[in-house]
Structures are given as C-alpha cells and as structure tokens.
Design a protein that fits this description.
Blueprint lengths: L1 H11 L3 H29 L1 H21 L3 H29 L5 H26 L4 H10 L2 H10 L7 H6 L3 H10 L4 H22 L4 H7 L3 H19 L2 H6 L1 H8 L4 H25 L5 H29 L3 H20 L1 H11 L6 H53 L20 H7 L1 H10 L1
Helix pairs in contact: 1-6, 2-3, 2-4, 2-19, 3-4, 3-6, 3-7, 4-5, 4-18, 4-19, 5-6, 5-15, 5-18, 9-10, 10-20, 12-18, 12-19, 14-15, 14-17, 15-17, 16-17, 16-19
C-alpha cells in the first residue's frame, strides 16, 4: 500500500486526511478480526481459522483490485483488515503449539518472516507495476494479493491440527498421533503429550465456575496478570516505537529527506523491504540460540540510536534545505532502524506473546495482544502525517526515540527469558503453577488415558 498510495492519490484525487484513513482502516478492521479469532479458533480449530482468514483476505484483495472509487477501496481494505486480524492472531499460536521447545522461536517467527518477504515482493512489484497505466498499475499492486491467500487456504489443509487444541476437545488419540509426527523421537512425543495432558487437567480444574475472559480481564491470577501485561506491553511498543511510520510512509520520509523522483522513491522503499526481510531471516536463526530477551534489548537499544539519527538528518533538511550528508544519514538511519527492529522486536513480539499464556487462555490472550497491536498500528498510520505537520518529520522521530527508551526499560523489567522451555512450564516464570509439578498429582489418570489410546 505504501507504493500504491502515490498513484491512488493521483488517480482518485484524495487528500492527505483521506490517505491517513485509508492506511489506518485496515488496522481498525483487523481489531475486529483479532478479537473474534480467539474464540473462533477454540471452536473450529487452528487450521480452519487460518482457512477462514485466507478467504476473508481474498475477498478484500479482489475488492481493492477492483477499486473504482474511494468508497469501494475503503470497503475492500476493511474486509482485508478483518482477514489480517484473524491471521495475525492464529498464525503464531498455531506455530507455537506444533513446535518443540528447541525450535519454537524459529518456527513461530516464520509468519513474521513471510510477512516481510511479502512486503518486499510488494515493494518490488510496485516498482514494475508503477510503470503501467495509472488506472491499472495500483489496482494490480493491491489485487494480486488474492493469489497467495488462495494458496494458503488450500495449503494449510495439508498440515496437521494443533495437538494442544485436540486435547482441549478431548480428541486424545488424534492428538497423540500428531504429536508423534511433529516430534523428533517417540520419547519426546510421550513427554510433550504428558505435559499437555497435565496442563490441560490443571487448566480444567482452574476453569470450574469461570470463563476465559473473566480469568484474563476481570479476575486474573497474579501470574496471568503479569503475563497479560507483558503481552499487551510488547504489542503496544512494537508499533508505538514507529516501525509502521517507516514501512508505510517510507516514500514520504525519503521525499522529505531530499529524494524527488518517483522511481528513486520506489527503489529506496524496496531497500526498506529488503533490509526487513534479510534481518528477520537472521533473527529466525538466533531466537533459539541467543534467546528472546537479549535480542529484544539489543534491538530496542539500536532503534533508539537509529530513530535519533534519522530525526537529526530530517531536522537538518527541514531547517537548511537539501543537504547531501543529511540525505545519506536519513536513508542509512531508516534502513538501520528497520534492521534493528527486524532482528528483535518485530519477530519476538509474535513469538513471545504466543508462548507465554496458559493453554486454556492462549487463543483469547493472544487475541488481546493482537488487538492492541492493531490499535497502535492504526494510531500511528492514521496520525503520522498530521503529527508531522505539527512537529515536523524530525520531531516525530525524536518522539519515537523517546518511546523506544521507555520500551527498553519495560522489556528489561517485565519480560523474562522463555528460550528452551516447554509451553506448559512458561507460566511459572511469572509466578504461576509448575505444570510438571501438577503432572505428578495426575500421573495415574495420565497413565490411564495413555493406556486407552
């Protein structure tokens, strides 16, 4: 959408306020999708929720590709946003629930990696589609997104259902068979299956007389309260620190820095997408070796530095006109900001928030995090141009640098390391019950169930 925006404004003759609404409406509608997806995935399963999200996004993409006027374009983007909300909630949860503890960081970060590859492909296609006729080019930029959503809808049906969801439904035999398929050895499968049984029994005991939303929001246990704060906090800071401004409005940023040609603006934007993809690839291999916490703190510290240097470059251009050194500083700083974000905060937000909630609360807990994520995304994307006009582009990035400092301290004090721990044991990091300890009290029942299947 960032590249298409340039051509949409020329074709449909819309103003900056309408552009802000168009950019942000996807995230407001994604809020609806993310809040609905949690309960939906608990009812119909993780796989079919992914199919549903793909179908909704396909409809939105087709409408955007048609886009005869601003109103239809808005409707299409909103429908696509509902699909995005579903996908952002369910993809990390599904990945976390089928992955082993030793590879969970890698597998759960893959959705973020492929989002980044999609953004890169979008930037590259924007460059080539931008050479077509005005009325055709931007419509192809948006409508072509229907193709991968169709592929995903059919491809996910070949994947196994989450064994943890199957256990919640009482389908123990299916769950155990799938656990053998996704584990390295039968011994590992037995251990993981027993952990899930124990955690499910523990959650069932706690659930008597209560519902999920009450446990999460109204009367949470101390450990759940800390988990919720951690999940909401990391999602809040992912976008409050400014990544959406750089990714979505990179042509505007580079234009302010001194780049004037549309071709050069689109090429510079391709650089943003390439940087994002490359560093997320690096992050996927580091998450399970270095750990979430070290990468997160390094990432956020680097974002403080990059935001500050970008703000300095843009402020110099604003005060003194086009300066070659300030232009170079701005471009390098923007790429550096994206690199630091992509090696830590970007992928870890989704990995961390999908693994810390207890089994019974995981889907709805993750949906709350995604809802906050989409709200902040919408706030940044719908207010960036207006704030820029008030405090200048450089002022906006000084603000983002300050928010990133606050984020660093929040992560330092509130987010413990989860690397290498089974999902069923993570709650105890926040002061909750130990699933292994609970399993000892359920050993007889677990053996009885195993013998039956």
């Amino acid at each position: 959408m960032s590249g298409a925006r340039i051509f949409i404004q020329d074709d449909l003759k819309i103003n900056d306020n309408q552009v802000e609404v168009l950019m942000g409406i996807l995230n407001l509608c994604a809020l609806v999708g993310s809040l609905t997806a949690g309960k939906t995935s608990d009812v119909i399963g993780r796989r079919y929720t992914i199919v549903l999200s793909s179908g909704i996004f396909l409809v939105g993409s087709v409408l955007m590709g048609y886009g005869p006027n601003y109103a239809v374009l808005m409707v299409g983007r909103c429908i696509a946003g509902v699909g995005v909300g579903f996908a952002l909630m369910i993809a990390p949860v599904y990945s976390a629930e089928i992955a082993s503890a030793s590879h969970r960081g890698f597998l759960t970060s893959l959705p973020e990696l492929y989002i980044s590859l999609g953004i890169l492909i979008g930037y590259v296609s924007n460059y080539f589609f931008g050479k077509l006729a005005l009325k055709l080019g931007w419509r192809l930029m948006l409508g072509i997104a229907a193709i991968p959503s169709l592929i995903l809808a059919f491809g996910i049906l070949k994947m196994p259902e989450s064994p943890r969801w199957l256990v919640m439904q009482g389908r123990l035999e299916e769950a155990k068979k799938i656990m053998v398929l996704i584990s390295n050895t039968e011994e590992e499968a037995e251990e993981r299956f027993s952990d899930i049984l124990a955690a499910a029994e523990l959650e069932e005991d706690r659930a008597v007389g209560s519902n999920v939303w009450r446990e999460l929001l109204i009367n949470p246990r101390p450990a759940v309260r800390l988990i919720l704060i951690a999940a909401v906090g990391i999602h809040f800071f992912e976008h409050a620190t400014g990544i959406e401004a750089v990714v979505l409005y990179s042509p505007k940023i580079f234009e302010k820095a001194g780049v004037t040609s549309k071709d050069k603006l689109l090429l510079a934007t391709v650089g943003v997408g390439l940087t994002k993809a490359v560093f997320i690839v690096i992050a996927t291999f580091l998450l399970d070796k270095v750990g979430r916490r070290k990468l997160l703190l390094t990432s956020t510290g680097g974002m403080v530095f990059a935001s500050t240097s970008l703000a300095i470059g843009l402020t110099m251009v604003h005060r003194f006109g086009r300066l070659l050194w300030a232009l170079k500083l701005s471009i390098v700083s923007a790429y550096t900001f994206v690199a630091f974000f992509s090696i830590g905060l970007g992928p870890i937000t989704w990995v961390y928030s999908s693994e810390i909630f207890p089994l019974r609360l995981r889907a709805q807990g993750a949906s709350i995090g995604v809802a906050v994520n989409r709200i902040m995304n919408a706030v940044v994307s719908m207010s960036f141009l207006s704030i820029m006009k008030t405090i200048t582009m450089g002022g906006v990035f000084f603000m983002f640098a300050g928010i990133a400092v606050v984020a660093w301290w929040f992560f330092f004090f509130m987010l413990p390391e989860t690397k290498g721990l089974p999902l069923e044991e993570i709650e105890k990091l926040f002061g909750g019950g130990d699933a292994r300890g609970a399993r000892e009290g359920l050993e007889i029942q677990a053996k009885r169930i195993n013998n039956k299947i």
